[in-house]
Amino acid sequence: MSGWGIDAAIPAGWDARLYRRVPGDAMEQTFPVLHAANFPLPANRGDFGSGAVEVMGPTHLFVSLLEYGDASVSTPLFAKYGMPKRLSPQDFRPDQLQRPIPGQLGVQRFFTDSGRAFCLYAVLGSYAARLMLIGRLNAALAGITLTAIGGVG
Predict the structure, then answer these.
(1) Torsions phi, psi of 151, nearest 5?
(2) Quick one: which of 110, 140, 111 has its CA closest to 124?
(3) What is the DSSP string of 25-70?
(4) Which candidate among 2, 22, 103, 120 keeps its CA 20 to 30 Å from the CA of 33?
(5) How far apart are CA 13 and CA 96, in angstroms?
(6) Model pLDDT for residues 59-114, shown as the tens digit of each residue
(7) What are the residue ranges spanned by the domains of the chain?
């Protein structure tokens, strides 16, 4: 799957979508969002996975990669360079979730890559399955490549 300078070789059996929301008005800018999961993604999802994380089982995982605008590139929040390709079980905590769901763990990483600002957000379905899920997640992250593009906004 490829578009807007995001190339994703998603593992077999996963569901993934790469999209860019339609602006609500002429002044609104929208940016690419990649969703990937090892379960069927519901049609209606928020950028950070609302609608999807609620239907996750204990062996499921969800990933969202969201781009932010050019103004974010030079901010301290996005100062770390390079998309995370390997996460560890210690990176995940319940307090990292956008919305707490019992048993789930999450992580957020803000970074700049190829002159573009992103947030990587990932959710694991359960603490008990985290070691197995981390390996699957890292395999998916390894297949994502970001490239510089002009005129994203």
Answers:
(1) 70, 40
(2) 140
(3) STT----EEEEEESSPPPSS--TT-TTTGGG--TT-EEEEEEEE-G
(4) 103
(5) 27
(6) 999 999 999 999 999 899 999 999 999 999 999 999 999 889 999 999 999 999 99
(7) 2-146
